[in-house]
Amino acid sequence: MIGGGKRCSEAARRLRQRPDTLELAVLDGQRAEKQEDDQTPSGAIGEPAVTATTSSSTKKTCWFQFARSSRNRRKRLHCEEDEEETENGRKACLAQPEGMNIGSSTQTIATPLMIGDSFYSLATEAPNPAGDPKPDDQEQYKQRDPSVVSESKSTRGLRRLSQLRRRRSSYYFSENERRIRANDKEFNLQYKYHNNYIKTSKYSVFTFLPFNLLEQFQRLANFYFLCLLVLQLIPAISSLTPVTTAIPLIGVLTLTAVKDAYDDIQRHLSDSQVNNRKSKTLRNGKLVDAKWSEVQVGDVIRLDNNQFVAADILLLTTSEPNGLCFIETAELDGETNLKAKQCLTETIELGDHHDALWNFNGEIFCERPNNLLNKFDGTLIWRNQRFALDNEKILLRGCVLRNTQWCYGVVVFAGVDTKLMQNSGKTQFKSTGVDRLLNFIIIGIVLFLVSICALFAVGCAIWEGLIGQHFQVYLPWEHIIPKDYIPSGATVIGLLVFFSYAIVLNTVVPISLYVSVEVIRFIQSFLINWDEEMYYARTNTYAKARTTTLNEELGQIQYIFSDKTGTLTQNIMTFNKCSINGRTYGDVIDLRTGEPVEVTEALQCVDFSANPHHESDFRWYDRTLLDAVRSDEEHSHVFFRLLALCHTVMAETVEGKLEYQAQSPDEAALVAAARNFGFVFRSRTPNSITIEVMGRMEEYELLNILDFNNVRKRMSVILRRGNTVVLYCKGADNVIYDRLHGGQEDLKARTQDHLNKFAGEGLRTLVLAERRLTEQYYKNWRIRQQEAALAMDSREERLNEIYEEIESDMQLVGVTAIEDKLQDGVPKAIANLQSAGIKIWVLTGDKQETAINIGYSCQLLTDELADVFIVDGNSVEEVEKQLRQFKESIKIYNRFRPGGTEALYNSDSNMDPLSVTMTQTSVFMHESSSPPTPPPPPAISVVTFRWDDKNKDKKGGPDSAECNDLFGDEKRSLDDGAASIVIDETTGFALVVNGHSLVHCLSPELEIKFLDIASQCKAVICCRVTPLQKALVVELIKRAKNAVTLAIGDGANDVSMIKAAHIGVGISGQEGLQAVLSSDYAIAQFRYLERLLLVHGRWSYYRMCKFLRYFFYKNFAFTLCHCWYSLFCGFSAQTVFDPMFISVYNLFYTSLPVLSLGIFEQDVSDKNSLEYPRLYTPGLRSELFNIREFIYSVLHGAFTSLVLFLIPYAVYKDGVSQNGYVLSDHMTLGAVVATILIVDNTAQISLYTSYWTIVNHITIWGSLVWYFVLDYFYNYVIGGPYVGSLTQAIKDLTFWMTMLITVMVLVAPVLAYKYYLLDVHPSLSDKIRQKSLKKIHSRASSDVRRTASSRRGRRSVRSGYAFAHQEGFGRLITSGKIMHKMPQDFAFPLGLGTKKTQALHNNLASADHTKASNSSGHHMGNNNNTNQRHNQNQNHSSMADISAEGRAADAGGSGASEDISPRAPCQDLDTINL
């Protein structure tokens, strides 16, 4: 037994030293029961038992006695196999104890621990008869510890105590659970939970050097040069000094280390900014300001209004009644509407009393950290009771507290364990496509190098065996070479020469390439940071490249995945336009022309200063609506009265100013609009609403709220004022239109035209309607509604039928048009990016209607689309069926669209030469005479017939219809007699996928079908998606399409998507810095993405590709000269150049010109890059640098090296100077070839350069001069071995003629090919440059890109409905939970749950009817005063009061009912918290 105890872990022993709270409670309960049994007479059955008072000393003795024996028993029970379980073959349940269903209920369950059937209970049971044998486990426990029997009342209770300990132990130490004790730091530390510290940096001061070097040498090129440096240290095989490799290698490592250090310092600064945020934490009973990084699991923290939640916390208490608080989860799911959270009713009493909160010692058992945002399972054990915890009681990190003064909570998950960080995904190493191609090319170059070295090694062995052995007097063999047997010696020499050539030809794998690439990327990053065109003055924010390794990848983006909220939109809703009684308001009409005037900031807005409650930031430009309101026009009053009454907004006065707290921004905008037009919502109670109309107070009795949900798509309120009962309703146009009474056809038609106009402008529309109800009808409906609410079967269906009944025969009031304000320039940016060939997907957590509406607003979706597919299936079968149907639709469309059938190409050539535009249906009707007749396709896409040249420029670059439109076609003729077909780019399909359906779409069996359809759609919108689903969508496209992806977002819910994409862009907006901290690039507005990609991205890719092509050319031209020289030196690995020239060729002589090319080169200006988006398309297809371009550069370099060596060799082989000096020496030849190589490099890069700056001039011509200066300094000052060689050569005319001929031979083919392409196959950039040079003004680029202005004013047949509202707030209002007063302060309606309360309700109804009939002529103000007086007498505090009132009503009849408020129940029973 003792040995088993020693086997226990140290952590387990520390835990066992503290007696279990529940066991102590059990022990106290047993002793109390024992005392009760001792003091209760045996015959006094049914009499109350007298409980003896236990002295404090006795309790302490019992406590210590139990604690001491409990420790000994735990060591034995927990550290060895349980004999009883072994005998019975039972296994311990590690997940959770039996009898407990943690988190299975969404309601709070408070179960006392002393109940007989409870798992934690040890209730006394009847003793066994005398003859019954004692159980085996009882005997075992008696043998183990006899004190157990003496301390327990019965053997039955002892066995249950043993089971309790065993099961509780397995539960506490389960690997699937998490145990937390509030305000107990030592207890929580033993589990080693993560703290709240966030770390995204990679290095520290001490680990930077070793870790960075280890990371750098994992790159193949660096490791290759390290091995090469080691070989150069061996004198027997090295013909070059180790300095030639050491200097470039050290330079590469140093420069890369500096760049990595800079990047990591930025990450350290970002981490410090987050970790040093302040959070109010409870320590030793006092509230102190602690850093976020210091917050620990189990701490109680305080949150104030508009503050970010520091960690995942269990809500304990709030400033609002009933424990409510409101949060905004835009960081998590992108939704801006508020969500209500409610703490346990038992913890509300803690309030903001620090002593009570510090003494809170509840234990929380919950799930392990996971990424499920909408799920939480746990149990709170406090005061010997257990309470179920669910997601409604948890505030997650990243949320913002709204409309709540303060709240307290205990930290459950911190740091990397929070659900936000669990959804953030892992940081992936990102490399560009150019990097991956370079790695492949380097491997190929190494294989080529090995082959060349092997070939030369064999040649050397043969030469030494046949010829070299006879010249050992002049060329002696090394002492390690065997001389007795010639073939062996030749073989050894060939082996050594293999390594010698590997050293000599090492420049074919250019280490300086990596230095130059890093420098170019580094400087390009600063060019992005310094771009004034991407500076946002409002927030003083510049664009920022947070990485320096991905710039050229910006020029190859094929897919953009964008968030909606805060990325495309501003999170601001504005009341833009409306339609009242068939008349539209909001457009400003020019009185001279009668046309609408474009609304700009310069336009003067309507002055609302006469309204004391107006908002200074409210903008409205149509004066006619305000005039109609002030002239008491009836319809406008009804319109704004409906807006002021039909909502769930709360009003409060802060510092003398009326402020609104809205659950959704839509409602806030509508109520604010009514407020500014003089219909001010002032206050509400659970059963009344007060508004101020043009300075007059009006109070309405709130009878019912028929709440909004995604199925109903509407919200209604039923109000009473005086003798009038009215229903106000607002909702989707198709829903409301189906519920209007007849006789409104003209009004409906005019309003529908306005709806189409608003939808075409991308506005969010709601239709308003009302219905006047009679008192008797409402009472009858109310009774039926209560019966449906109390029904046990099909309650929801019956309630929906009741709601349908009353929400019918309504009168159309008008339409509201709200603008979900897009960020400036979003439609134009999206249009240009799509014109560039980039596909844009929107991934948002918002509702489907909202996402679609924004899609139309930003012109991602257009009315010209053939169809918008919506995938909303709930099962794999449903989703598969929908995808199959969509696939068939696409096939039909592709079959009948232009180019899909031969009929369109064989159309009549004698048609009118004018441009004719017709639908597909018209085309097939025109050709219906030709058999067989194809089935009629849907009239969807637009086909335009033009008399253009059919096949223009089939070759050479991205020459498309855009070029013809821009620059015209000189060969165009009206006599060609054939019509070419141009398909409108706006036609096609769009796909909308719901989050629950996306789960199935991403499954292995459906992902191929999903991708097949999505890839054929012009736009894809995924709504209601989780952060993890966003990342999965990105990963799917990366994996299946092998496409370059970019993700852009502004919230923490976008972090996983940003990390998963090749390029992550963060919007530095109002939702925190989580997205920016995880991004590769940060911009202030979405519109800057257009410039980031089309200008900086395209330039970076263009420059890098041009740099690489030239770099490989010059290096192969330089290195292969050694190969040609080997044919004349017996393959001896002798170099043709000076060793110092080899060392500094790439570093000093040719580095600066090629760097200038990679930094400043541009084919067209930034203005043209934006004006002609299709300039971006070569990057999508990797046309500027690929294997073909690399081979071309290699062949060009090989040709150059051959000419460079052979012409000077032929001239100088037997050459003699004019003075009679012999020119055929090795050093002179090497100096001449080296000089001609530098001159040729200068000429070639001059031809490569398209954009000349002062830097280009200095570096190109300066490098040429620098070569002569450095050569003179090295040879004459330092004393190099080639001293005087170049000096003597340049004195002779032979040198200059040789250089001129060689350079001309090398440059002439390049010039000829360049001008051939420019003249015969010009690219789009070539044409744009020619246009700029010739100053030819072509027509505007509206034919190429679709701008925002071209879409305005269009009418749409789709619905513009979108309403970011959430179900449940109506229940909170009418139940009083959302009110700042406690429920007992209001006159709540009486419940109908019992017969007595039903009778009371009948009396109330009859009294109400009598009162209404008697006071029909009275003023409404008197009725309100009466109601208020009655309300003060109707504060029932318990059901007993209600029952008493009911009995009094039955006895007193009508006379007793006069003192009862006539107000009807204010809410449906299905929404009352019973």
- Report helical residue fraction: 40-55%
The first-to-last residue Cα distance is 55 Å
The total of beta strands comes to 39
Q: Trace the largest sheet across and list its strands.
A: 15-39-38-37-16-30-36-35-31
Estimate the global geometry from the Cα principal axes.
elongated
Features:
45% helix, 9-stranded antiparallel beta sheet, 14% strand, 1474 residues, alpha+beta, disordered N terminus, 51 helices, disordered C terminus
Condensed summary:
This protein is of the alpha+beta class. The chain has 51 helices and 39 strands.
Describe this structure in words.
Helix content is 45%, strand content 14%. The chain is an alpha+beta fold. The strands form 8 sheets. The chain has a 9-stranded mixed sheet with strand order 15-39-38-37-16-30-36-35-31, sandwiched between helices. A 9-stranded antiparallel sheet has the order 18-17-29-28-27-26-25-24-23, with helices on both faces. The longest helix has 39 residues, at 1088-1126. The relative contact order is 0.08.
Q: How does the SSE layout of this entry go?
A:
Elements: H1 2-6, H2 10-16, H3 21-39, H4 56-78, H5 83-88, E1 111-112, H6 136-144, H7 147-151, H8 155-172, E2 177-181, H9 185-189, H10 208-216, H11 220-232, H12 243-275, E3 278-283, E4 286-291, E5 300-304, E6 312-318, E7 324-328, H13 330-333, E8 338-342, H14 354-358, E9 363-367, E10 378-382, E11 385-389, E12 394-395, E13 400-402, E14 406-413, H15 419-422, H16 433-466, H17 486-504, H18 511-529, E15 544-545, E16 559-562, E17 569-580, E18 583-585, E19 588-589, E20 596-597, H19 623-630, H20 634-645, E21 650-654, E22 657-661, H21 665-676, E23 679-685, E24 688-693, E25 696-706, E26 714-721, E27 724-731, H22 733-737, H23 745-760, E28 764-773, H24 775-789, H25 795-806, E29 811-822, H26 826-835, E30 839-843, H27 848-857, E31 867-871, H28 876-896, H29 902-905, E32 916-919, H30 920-926, E33 942-946, H31 961-967, E34 980-983, E35 989-994, H32 995-1001, H33 1007-1015, E36 1019-1023, H34 1027-1041, E37 1045-1049, H35 1055-1060, E38 1063-1067, H36 1074-1078, E39 1081-1083, H37 1088-1126, H38 1139-1149, H39 1151-1160, H40 1166-1171, H41 1177-1180, ...
Parallel strand pairs: 16-30, 16-37, 30-36, 31-35, 35-36, 37-38, 38-39
Antiparallel strand pairs: 1-11, 2-9, 3-4, 3-5, 5-14, 6-12, 6-14, 7-8, 7-13, 9-10, 10-11, 15-39, 17-18, 17-29, 19-20, 21-22, 23-24, 24-25, 25-26, 26-27, 27-28, 28-29, 32-33, 33-34
Helix pairs in contact: 10-12, 11-12, 12-18, 12-38, 16-17, 18-37, 18-39, 20-21, 24-25, 26-37, 28-33, 37-39, 37-42, 37-43, 39-44, 42-43, 42-46, 43-44, 43-46, 49-51
